[in-house]
Specification:
Structural class: alpha+beta
Shape: globular
Oligomer: single chain
Distance between the termini: 63 Å
Number of helices: 24
Number of strands: 19
Helix content: 40-55%
Radius of gyration: 26 Å
């Protein structure tokens, strides 16, 4: 196939998604007209869900940082997850005003606090594949990347020159094949309105993370502001609340089992169109490596911040993120072990390979699968060593900055060229963690190096006191007091080979270069092979399939639905306030203050919020929609587009969604809107918020 023909095939497939299973998929909004919404139980037309002229449900959606949120008032109020603003809240917290622990409530707008999170509203999308891929065919590696970057930047510059009000992004829809230009209205001033106490927003913590049944009030409320001129503007006390074209109405009656529901959101990344070797590598190498490293990091940060509130607040967001990924990967490994996903992928690739050999004259297509296997075989040889070497320079800021200094010195670059240090600035903060991380990673690298080099030592062992002395003397151990003053002066001391950490960088430099070359070589070959693999897959299947999630606006739908995650076990799709009361104070992750517990016990029968069937306040909601990371904060909407929940997690069995969706085990979790209203009323005493929502309880 030539490039033009391939792009044409992709475009035709993308706009004709007509026979994908209706309960599976993260649909690009451009494909809504190919879904039988009526049959799915949804009382809206595609045009009412998304259109580029405005007024659709999508106008109430925002990409909030790395999450999703939705407008719930005409004064710019947005609901999202507690964990989506966790980092902002931890940064705003102090031992005196510990909003992370105690929660936050702004009774007046002037008391709202800036989060630093941008909120983006999707306005339109356009296929720009031809322009992005112009001149790319036949190029590989750095040359190919440079051409893609140049083409992409030229397109973005062209649109930005004509329109300064909006922001533009180009997203890859099919790897190396299809690219869409998205136009966003980006709101830069987003402020905290209400954050529940941690004992609600993170109830169950890591014990319940990725689990069902769930009783977590994982929600928070923020507000978007713009300048008085009606344009997006950075934080300014004079800014005014943003008025969205559409905000979601709240359905305080919630849902019942088998009700139709749907989600619009910004799922981050899935890998459903990767070859078998990718999944095998993830399962055998990458995920176990990450689990090992993240586990150590979490335990070390908890140890270092024990009985030190200020230090813990600095670590809190990082610990939460690491723990979330760690458990997610454990779930994926379990899912790959308990399901046939790996075997099915291996069989599909084998059949595709046989099809290619029988159908194509070109050796390029005949050898796609074997060529992919070859590059992964090469990658596996140094997988562990390369992983921990990368972690040394990415996760230990002093080592990353010192290596950058040595690389510039090696390349005889001017001392003025220190912009690359910027990425490390904010991380150069905790000496104890940096020192412990270096020692841990040095041991790992020495062990792995010895295995491949007959017991040879890579990094000479240094006594703890000497190591500490060397670290403390280095300019890279202290950004504010040592490194920044030298950078400000453009001092050549930044590049001194006498610095102890620079010496370590010099020692590791040859291995660093080899690792970088291996990574670049793999990427260059993979960039060529994956478009061919997708060509082959489309030709072989003769059916449509959706592009992997990539952080762009997607639609998914299904039903409120229970499931059987294990033999002999059935999980109902709703949990109630009784479950919170039963769990309260039974273990550390279920800590609940006695005054809050008393409120729960005495107001469990709040008439408006009680579910008619159970006679209890509903807390958690389970459904079979297709979600992944980035869908955090997505509104769960009923058949009429009203808000009934806020998506925040998946069941443990559904962590495998990133590789494959399955009706039997793919379940997503939301905090029920009735629990949100309950907390606002009885715990938060946030009557101003309820009044703005036009909800009376």
């Amino acid at each position: 196939m030539n490039q033009i023909k391939t792009i044409t095939i992709i475009i035709l497939i993308f706009v004709s998604l007509s026979f994908i299973k209706p309960d599976e998929g993260m649909y690009p909004v451009s494909s809504l007209n190919k879904i039988n919404l009526k049959e799915a139980g949804i009382n809206l037309s595609p045009n009412q869900i998304f259109n580029e002229t405005g007024g659709a449900v999508s106008d109430a959606l925002v990409r909030l940082g790395g999450c999703t949120g939705s407008f719930i008032s005409n004064e710019g109020m947005i609901i999202t997850n507690h964990h989506c603003v966790f980092g902002s809240v931890s940064r705003l917290s102090t031992p005196t005003n510990n909003y992370l622990q105690d929660g936050f409530h702004a009774a007046q707008k002037e008391n709202e606090l800036a989060t630093g999170l941008p909120a983006k509203i999707t306005l339109s999308s356009k296929d720009v594949s031809m322009e992005v891929l112009k001149g790319v065919e036949g190029k590989q590696g750095a040359e190919r990347d440079a051409q893609l970057k140049s083409n992409t930047q030229a397109i973005l510059n062209s649109y930005a020159a004509k329109d300064s009000l909006h922001t533009f992004e180009i997203s890859e829809m099919f790897e190396g094949k299809q690219y869409f230009l998205f136009t966003y209205l980006t709101l830069l001033d987003v402020r905290l309105v209400y954050v529940p106490p941690r004992y609600i927003g993170e109830f169950g913590a890591e014990t319940d993370n990725w689990e069902w049944p769930r009783h977590t009030g994982d929600f928070s409320i923020v507000r978007a502001y713009i300048g008085k001129d009606g344009k997006p503007a950075a934080y300014n006390a004079a800014n005014v609340p943003f008025v969205p074209k559409r905000h979601l109405k709240i359905n305080p009656n919630g849902t019942k089992e088998n009700d139709a529901v749907f989600i619009l959101g910004y799922p981050g990344r899935t890998y459903r169109h990767q070859p078998y070797q990718f999944l095998q590598y993830q399962n055998d190498y990458y995920m176990p490596q990450v689990i090992d490293w993240f586990t150590w990091r979490i335990e070390k940060m908890e140890e270092l911040s024990k009985n030190n509130t200020a230090k813990y607040l600095g670590f809190a967001s990082t610990i939460k993120g690491l723990a979330n990924t760690q458990k997610n990967f454990r779930g994926k490994i379990q899912g790959l072990r308990r399901t046939s996903v790996l075997a099915d992928k291996a069989k599909e690739d084998e059949l595709m390979s046989n099809f290619a050999k029988a159908s194509y004259k070109s050796e390029t297509y005949k050898n796609v699968l074997s060529d992919i296997d070859a590059i992964y075989m090469e990658r596996r040889v140094h997988a562990d060593f390369d992983f921990y070497l990368q972690r040394l320079f990415n996760d230990v800021p002093a080592m990353g900055a010192a290596m950058e200094a040595f690389v510039q010195l090696k390349n005889e670059q001017s001392v003025k060229n220190y912009a690359a240090f910027v990425q490390y600035y904010s991380k150069l903060d905790d000496h104890q963690l940096n020192i412990a991380s270096m020692e841990f990673l040095f041991d790992k690298l020495n062990t792995l190096y010895a295995k491949q080099h007959y017991g040879a030592v890579l990094i000479p062992k240094m006594e703890s006191d000497k190591f500490l002395k060397m670290y403390n003397k280095s300019i890279f151990s202290d950004y504010a007091n040592k490194l920044k003053p030298l950078l400000d002066k453009k001092s050549k001391k930044v590049f001194s080979k006498k610095d102890g950490i620079v010496k370590l960088a010099e020692l590791l430099y040859p291995y660093y270069v080899e690792s970088q070359v291996r990574g670049a070589t793999f990427k260059a070959k993979n960039d060529v092979l994956m478009p061919l693999y997708n060509d082959l897959k489309m030709d072989y299947k003769k059916t449509d399939f959706l592009p992997d999630a990539n952080g762009t606006l997607r639609f998914t739908y299904g039903k409120v639905k229970g499931f059987s995650p294990n033999d002999g076990e059935y999980n109902y799709p709703h949990t109630t306030l009784n479950g919170v009361i039963e769990k309260a104070n039974s273990m550390p992750d279920y800590v609940m203050p006695l005054d809050a517990l008393s409120i729960y016990k005495n107001t469990n029968a709040a008439s408006m919020l009680v579910d008619k069937k159970t006679g209890k306040v509903i807390v958690g909601l389970l459904y079979d929609l297709d979600t992944t990371g980035g869908n955090s904060g997505s509104p769960v909407m009923d058949a009429d587009g009203n808000l009934v929940g806020v998506n925040f997690d998946r069941a443990y069995t559904a962590t495998i969604n990133d590789y494959a969706w399955n009706e039997a085990y793919s379940r997503s979790i939301a905090v029920d809107i009735r629990y949100v209203l309950y907390v606002l009323k009885y715990i938060g005493k946030a009557d101003n918020v309820l009044e703005e929502l036009q909800i009376k309880i």
